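Customer escalation, tier 2.

The customer says the design service returned an amino acid string that "doesn't look like it belongs to this structure." They asked us to rerun it and document both sides in this ticket. The original structure tokens are below, unchanged.
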């Protein structure tokens, strides 16, 4: 190959790399915007959801009162007339079904309230302060956020130990866990298992995310933490998630490790120092 052709080839390769990096940066910005939008939406719908929840409580009380009222009034009619009216409006079925509908609506609404709360907690990246935190609360909050992503791909198994609190930035650890859970789900072709474990010793407090997915080749294990490196199809990943996750954990003076076997799955472990004070600011 001539020198000119070689240079042309290098230029073409560089142009391609610039295009890929530009696309991935744009995708990263979109994800950040989506996070801000989610926080804004959570804030905006918090108030109407609040008074709907209050109304549901009153509605449950009103429905109980109306059922009791109809029963009392029916006792003042002759038996045939009362039975005719009760059957006409299928009163027995209404008495059985109405409380169930109200209860299911209340449960669904509480689920929405929980998601809103978790979205608000999860999106508080600007509140970047180290605080004493229960890691299990953050894990549960993040599981609520990503439940829809996981439920069609994997059974989630939690193996929790009793943990001491740690100094950390909870929202950033939530972001790391979210990345690990989404990656685990995407590594599973059909249906598998994702296991979240926690533990501690004299030096570290940790959590791990293990999956029964496709696994990662040994020669790729360090590459996966490089910015913009991804094995996912175009449009499914920016290649920034693990790089940002390791950066966050390093800021916490911790360690993000992975062990993996092709065809059997991967296990990512986050270790945080078990210390009595927060790390020094950068």
């Amino acid at each position: 190959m001539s020198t000119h052709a070689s240079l042309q080839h290098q230029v073409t390769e560089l142009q391609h790399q610039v295009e890929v990096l530009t696309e991935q940066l744009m995708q990263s910005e979109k994800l950040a915007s989506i996070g801000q939008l989610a926080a804004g939406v959570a804030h905006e719908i918090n108030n109407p959801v609040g008074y709907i929840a209050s109304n549901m409580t009153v509605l449950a009380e009103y429905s109980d009162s109306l059922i009791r009222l109809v029963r009392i009034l029916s006792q003042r009619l002759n038996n045939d007339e009362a039975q005719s009216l009760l059957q006409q409006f299928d009163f027995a079925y209404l008495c059985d079904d109405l409380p169930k509908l109200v209860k299911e609506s209340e449960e669904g609404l509480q689920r929405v309230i929980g998601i809103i709360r978790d979205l608000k907690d999860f999106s508080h990246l600007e509140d970047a302060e180290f605080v004493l935190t229960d890691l299990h609360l953050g894990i549960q909050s993040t599981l609520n956020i990503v439940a829809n992503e996981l439920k069609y791909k994997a059974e989630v198994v939690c193996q929790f130990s009793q943990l001491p609190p740690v100094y950390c930035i909870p929202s950033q650890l939530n972001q790391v866990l979210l990345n690990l859970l989404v990656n685990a789900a995407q590594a599973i072709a059909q249906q598998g298992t994702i296991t979240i474990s926690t533990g501690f010793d004299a030096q570290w407090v940790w959590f791990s995310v293990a999956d029964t997915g496709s696994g990662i080749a040994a020669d790729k294990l360090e590459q996966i933490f490089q910015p913009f490196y991804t094995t996912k199809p175009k449009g499914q990943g920016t290649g920034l998630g693990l790089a940002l996750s390791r950066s966050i954990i390093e800021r916490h003076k911790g360690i993000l490790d992975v062990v993996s076997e092709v065809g059997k799955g991967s296990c990512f472990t986050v270790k945080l120092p078990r210390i009595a004070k927060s790390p020094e600011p950068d």
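Tier 2 assessment: The sequence is consistent with the input. Residues 36 and 123 are 7 Å apart (CA to CA). The chain is about 55% helix and 15% strand. Sent an explanation to the customer and offered a walkthrough call.
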